[in-house]
Write a structure and sequence with these properties.
Belongs to the tetraspanin (TM4SF) family. It is found in: Membrane. This is Tetraspanin. Keywords: Glycoprotein, Membrane, Transmembrane, Transmembrane helix. It is a multi-pass membrane protein. The chain contains 9 helices and no strands. The chain is elongated and about 80 Å long. It folds into 2 domains: 124 residues, no CATH class; 91 residues, no CATH class. Helices cover 68% and strands 0% of the residues. It is mainly α.
């Protein structure tokens, strides 16, 4: 009977560690994508030290979970007490680190404010210059989400004009309405938009649009994080039970 319980515990331990292995692989993949993303998303992340640090923390945590999930699977199948103890200690440290990071993220969530993004936009945006990564990224965001600036077109009144280029109005063409929301989409009326006609401009700020778009995903990410913590907790319990059961 005891042997059957030990065998059941071993395979449950393997199953939980397999999920940790997959979770680590997903975090590792997302972290790498954020850092090396060729579309310029990394430039927006780099502009905020909190986001920049978070990307590397995600990368490090994903790599550690990937490795520890692999070690936990090996320790369970081979019934190696050394590997199981090593796994338990490190998964405990990761569990506490993730819990601390979640608490800190909740406390400092107010850092990602309208004021911060508005300041960065006015400081770094170079209008329709697609050779500038920051400006090109903002243009892509505004076209994709049919929005303009952080708060609205008025954000661009303080953006200096590009030297040697004529300036028809303060609104960039990325804020102009299109029949299809893509760079290849035809403008509804580009000339009227650039001349200041509000009828042909996207008037809503990107901060509100994106916040509303990703509100559902924020709760999904929170639920996923709670699920990962629960899996890690059960994995530690199974690891210690298996450790004690091995002769």
């Amino acid at each position: 009977m005891e042997g059957d319980c030990l065998s059941c515990m071993k395979y449950l331990m393997f199953l939980f560690n397999f999920f940790i292995f997959l979770g680590g692989a997903c975090l590792l993949g997302v972290g790498i994508w954020v850092i090396v993303d060729p579309t310029g998303f990394r430039e927006i992340v780099a502009a905020n030290p909190l986001l920049f640090t978070g990307a590397y923390i995600m990368l490090a945590m994903g790599a550690m979970l990937f490795l520890l999930g692999f070690l936990g699977c090996c320790g369970a199948i081979r019934e190696n007490k050394c590997l199981l103890l090593f796994f338990f200690m490190f998964i405990l440290l990761i569990f506490l680190a993730e819990l601390s990071a979640a608490i800190l993220a909740f406390i400092f969530r107010e850092n990602l404010t309208r004021e911060f993004f508005t300041k960065e936009l006015k400081k770094h945006y170079v209008r329709n210059n697609d050779t500038d990564v920051f400006s090109s990224t903002w243009n892509s965001v505004m076209i994709t989400f049919a929005c303009c600036g952080v708060n609205g077109p008025e954000d661009f009144e303080a953006v200096p004009p590009v030297p040697h280029l004529p300036l028809v109005g303060t609104t960039p063409e990325a804020c102009c309405q299109r029949k299809l929301q893509s760079r290849e989409g035809m403008f509804v009326n580009k000339d009227a938009c650039l001349a200041g006609s509000e009828r042909f401009q996207n008037r809503q700020g990107c901060y509100t649009v994106i916040l509303n778009s990703f509100e559902t995903y924020v709760y999904l990410a929170g639920a996923l994080a709670i699920g990962v913590l629960a899996i890690e907790l059960f994995a530690m319990i199974f690891a210690m039970c298996l450790f004690r059961g091995i002769q």
